[in-house]
């Protein structure tokens, strides 16, 4: 199927500029298209050159945060305006969300981590991490500093 699509296209066109787009337009697996092109190239029926593109994709953890919000955002929202004892807050959240959320929310200066009581330092927060992850998921570009931060937190990986 892929071979017929490629040869049929090349009978009437000079070149296939991008095998990824070609495969997507025809609903054919990209790897299948690439394998056929390599085979045709090996037999010297076509000339081909590699095009490498690196994009960012969300890890499973990153995908979770697009739905639930970042740990720091979840932690902030679990704290009532009057504050909450640390052990009570810990019971309200998943252990990993609590641990990551405490570190990130304190780093962002959103919360005050007292010995017993955890309180908000600000009234409202914007879940920037969730916003960035959604942008990546939708194929939009983000700044290199944001990419470094998300990569360091293992929320995105290159593809």
Automatic annotation (TrEMBL):
<feature type="domain" description="PheRS DNA binding">
    <location>
        <begin position="3"/>
        <end position="56"/>
    </location>
</feature>
<dbReference type="Pfam" id="PF18552">
    <property type="entry name" value="PheRS_DBD1"/>
</dbReference>
<protein>
    <recommendedName>
        <fullName>PheRS DNA binding domain-containing protein</fullName>
    </recommendedName>
</protein>
<feature type="domain" description="PheRS DNA binding">
    <location>
        <begin position="70"/>
        <end position="125"/>
    </location>
</feature>
<dbReference type="InterPro" id="IPR040725">
    <property type="entry name" value="PheRS_DBD3"/>
</dbReference>
<dbReference type="Pfam" id="PF18553">
    <property type="entry name" value="PheRS_DBD3"/>
</dbReference>
<dbReference type="InterPro" id="IPR040724">
    <property type="entry name" value="PheRS_DBD1"/>
</dbReference>
